[in-house]
């Protein structure tokens, strides 16, 4: 029995529709299988929470990446010895549904000022209850940062961890110098060499001869880390924040419940009750740490980073070197889209 032209056209349309649906189904199944095979990156964040607003948003996008299955936050350590720095990190962990993430705090450090947002965000309501739920009442109640770092690393597979340091490098230096304990029989340098595959640091300035805050706040620690860290180090320098600003428009339009979001409350407190964009140094560091293969940034040639007598960072190029720093790649639009999407992602959305 033959088919007329109209019947043939109908059959062809149905065949095309079936083929498209089959391809979509196969694409979905393949993506899920690939995603299931990719292990989330175990990451430890070391932050001087309380000094600048970008630490707050950096921790927010790290939680968003955790929700997407791209990483797993192993621990958060604080390099600012302020009574509210630890509790503020607890607020963020709790807000994103991960109150069980360990928090460790440096007990004596080089930055201890109130900062622009800690007191305002942590201020209780008139009835004494907190605006944002948290269990840690003061940083003094948290364990020592080095103990948390050692415990977190000891429980990980070899060469698996990424450490992101977005403040002075005091805790990282202390980790390197730490002695064997109940968590690991390894000395700090050996523990790091065994467990950490990448250290990402927000620090330095390679565009002009200027000492950057995270360097000069503890230059002895910074010099020690750059000298003694045996593995790969990627630096997110000051000029990356000049290139990448978090846009004010995202703060105004992208967040669903701005009055109840700790990131936006902290932004308001920082800028005197006004929404304001900011240099996104720490967000860039976190984005590269978890998505190094997305080609968001260019990289310097490899080499060895040192500090000069004025605490200015210098890279001595060496093909065998393990230090590099990030360089802007074209316009900032693609990176801006990534960080705004992650920062505004509701905590309940995986």
TrEMBL record:
Q: Name one GO molecular function term.
A: hydrolase activity, hydrolyzing N-glycosyl compounds
- Superkingdom of the source species: Bacteria
Tell me, what's a Pfam family for it? Answer: IU_nuc_hydro
**Which InterPro entries has this protein been placed in?**
Inosine/uridine_hydrolase_dom, Ribo_hydro-like
Would the keyword Metal-binding be found if you checked this record's keyword annotation? no
Q: Which residues form the Inosine/uridine-preferring nucleoside hydrolase domain?
A: 43-305
* UniProt keyword annotations, A-Z: Hydrolase
Which residues fall in a coiled-coil region? none
User: What Gene3D superfamilies does the record point to?
Assistant: Ribonucleoside hydrolase-like
Q: What is this protein's record name?
A: Ribonucleoside hydrolase RihC
**Organism encoding this protein:** Planctopirus ephydatiae
**Lineage of producing organism:** Bacteria, Pseudomonadati, Planctomycetota, Planctomycetia, Planctomycetales
